[in-house]
Design a protein that fits this description.
The protein has 11 helices and 2 strands. It has 169 residues and is mainly alpha-helical. It has a single domain, classed as P-loop containing nucleotide triphosphate hydrolases (Rossmann fold), CATH 3.40.50.300. Strands 1-2 form a two-stranded parallel ribbon.
Length: 169
């Protein structure tokens, strides 16, 4: 099982923009309103911290490979190689580079009209890391830090997320 994780602050930021683009989902005019709903478990897809906590029970198992969006962005070739190794797939250098290129955010966004139809624009917005810094207030930052510490601080999933690197202001 490949367990793909992303830092909670960028998850909230991404969900905020996604919910604004998807009319069936509750829409929030203001970030502050969305943040309050996100932190009080009022999202249609559930609570991200509960999701992380639930997966933490399995993260150390031999057949589970936790990987973060941030590490894949930082070094996609190493990430793809590690994933291929985990699944017992050997790749030539040419195949590895092909996977890296075709799975890049930019490539997926470009191809999204073909692969995801009208949802493409909502699913592929920026693809960056640390965009949360453009929305979070100091108080929201502290609130999220506390929720992270309470739910997954000191756990394998918490350590994997490198919270101190990607989530500190």
């Amino acid at each position: 099982i490949l367990l793909l994780l992303r830092n909670p602050k960028d998850v909230a930021t991404s969900f905020y923009h996604f919910s604004k683009a998807m009319s069936p989902l509750p829409s929030y005019e203001k970030w502050d309103d969305f943040f309050a709903a996100f932190m009080t478990k009022k999202m249609p897809w559930g609570c991200y911290f509960e999701y992380l906590s639930a997966w933490n029970k399995y993260a150390a198992r031999e057949h589970v490979m936790p990987v973060t969006y941030e590490e894949l962005k930082e070094n996609p070739a190493v990430g793809v190689k590690n994933i291929a190794d985990f699944f017992g797939i050997s790749l030539t250098e040419k195949e590895l580079q092909s996977v890296v290129e075709r799975s890049s955010f930019e490539s997926m966004k470009k191809n999204s009209p073909k692969t995801h139809g009208a949802l493409g624009n909502a699913l592929f917005r920026k693809g960056g890391v640390s965009d949360w810094k453009n929305l979070f207030s100091d108080d929201q930052n502290k609130t999220m830090d506390k929720a992270f510490a309470d739910h997954v601080g000191g756990t394998k999933v918490g350590a994997k997320l490198k919270y101190d690197v990607y989530c500190k202001a």
